[in-house]
């Protein structure tokens, strides 16, 4: 395990990284929020279906 080589690779990546613009950040936030809502909605629908199934039985 060559620690100096790994550290140089990490620093190279950090130098290439840049802060996103407000537009990029806003778009990423909207997409992530929509994904969270979609997963929550899917879980709620599954919950409703399971409640319906158990009430019939």
Automatic annotation (TrEMBL):
SUPFAM superfamilies: Preprotein translocase SecE subunit. Keywords: Cell membrane, Membrane, Protein transport, Translocation, Transmembrane, Transmembrane helix, Transport. The chain crosses the membrane at residues 31-50. GO terms for molecular function: protein transmembrane transporter activity. One of its GO terms (cellular component) is endomembrane system. It is found in: Cell membrane; Endomembrane system. It is a single-pass membrane protein. InterPro entries: Prot_translocase_SecE_dom_sf, Translocase_Sec61-g, Translocase_SecE/Sec61-g. One of its GO terms (biological process) is protein targeting. It comes from the Archaea. Component of the Sec protein translocase complex. Heterotrimer consisting of SecY (alpha), SecG (beta) and SecE (gamma) subunits. The heterotrimers can form oligomers, although 1 heterotrimer is thought to be able to translocate proteins. Interacts with the ribosome. May interact with SecDF, and other proteins may be involved. HAMAP family: SecE. Essential subunit of the Sec protein translocation channel SecYEG. Clamps together the 2 halves of SecY. May contact the channel plug during translocation. Belongs to the SecE/SEC61-gamma family. This is Protein translocase subunit SecE. The gene is secE.
